[in-house]
Amino acid sequence: MKDFPQMKKLKIVMYFSIIVFTVLGASFGQTIQYGSPGIEVLYKGSNAWCTIVIMGDGYTQAEQAKFAGHAVKSKQAILNTFPYNKYKSSLAIYKINLISKDSGVDYSRSQNKKRTALEGFYYGRAVLINPNLLRKVLQKFSSQLGNMKYVYPLILVNSTRHGGVTSMSYYYRYASSCTSSRLPHIVVHELGHLIFRLADEYDYGRSGTYHGSEPPYSNVSANGNPYTVKWSFITQTAFEGAMYYKKGVWRPQKYCRMRTWVNYFCKVCNFAAEYYFQNKKPLFIRPGHTYTLANNGNGNNSSNNGNNNNGGGNNSSNNGGGNNSSNNGNTSNNGNGTSTSGGSHPNNTRPKPSLNRPKPNQPRPKKVVVVVRGRPIVVSLGNNKSKK
User: Fold this and answer.
1) pLDDT tens-digit readout, 249-302
2) Is residue 364 part of a domain?
3) pLDDT per residue over 220-231, tens digit each?
4) CA nearest 253: which of 296, 185, 314, 327?
5) Where in the chain does DSSP place strands (E)?
6) What's the gap between Cα 244 and its chain centre?
7) Spatial separation of the C-alpha atoms in residues 148 and 86, rounded to whole Å
8) Is 208 in a helix, a strand, or coil?
9) In 106-150, beta strands by DSSP E
10) Distance between CA atoms of 19 and 30, rounded to whole angstroms?
11) Is residue 161 part of a domain?
12) Domain span at 368
């Protein structure tokens, strides 16, 4: 099976939810100012190996308390969400304190005015940063963070303008979020992409009908038969409309954090998340294959028994699931309305970028490729030497 034409053109494997793949490189000339302490532990389980690193962009020295509040709010959203709360012992959450000269971030790259720690800016509703600066921060604290294979940066930008992003470039992966009242919901949604490799399930952003090959992600399928769809061993339901198309692609259940503003993942997303924590790798369900979880895991939150009327569809005996009764009424983000798909991976292997891995002496990238609703757009990073 082959990738979409635009994927071949860019020679990169793209990921869902406003994916950004960077022209890789490393630049260490810019000085980053850190708070005191530079890094703090917000939570650490007894057997922590999955590390979420929260850092802020656009927070001045006087706004560090504000960032601390946003970081704690994000931590609480994560730990109050199933299945994170089931696997708390595997989680560590750190906060890295970055100080920006200016408050807020640019609302477009052309502005190029704000002097911030990670050079954050909006591109539509995508919230982007300079990936080289992110790498520099992570390298500084690598000894505290542990195995970088399981380190997931979460960038909070000091702006209430709605937006977020998930970048899955191998060396520069991160999720970002604005800090509006919907911060908790956006954080959980974007981390669903970043950690569990879940696709967006909403059905807007692309016109026409999906005619591509089987998507390589566990929670969307080109097969609409509820009894033969790849997740039928979890739930025999299928709802048309997902991955930015209204027709030709299906999702497991009617509602899910990866689709709309509800406060639970669907059964399949929960299954994929539990699989990650139990196997230390993402799950890419292959059609015709069955996967199992230890400890009677089945994609449901056992405290809820799946009764939230979020399923139904073609199998009346299965009416939903994957709800989290402990989440204090929060709702989740339905994405950001922009993104793309990445072709087929029939061997259930992890998608890997075809770009060469960066070398220490490579120059700083001057451009990023932003895929907005499946259409690649090149965004210049500009020359930030003018930011004094």
Assistant:
1) 999 999 999 999 899 999 999 999 999 999 999 999 999 999 999 975 555 654
2) yes
3) 999 999 999 999
4) 314
5) 20-22, 33-44, 50-57, 91-99, 121-123, 126-128, 151-157, 164-167, 174-177, 239-242, 245-251, 367-372, 375-380
6) 16
7) 23
8) coil
9) 121-123, 126-128
10) 25
11) yes
12) 5-198+355-379
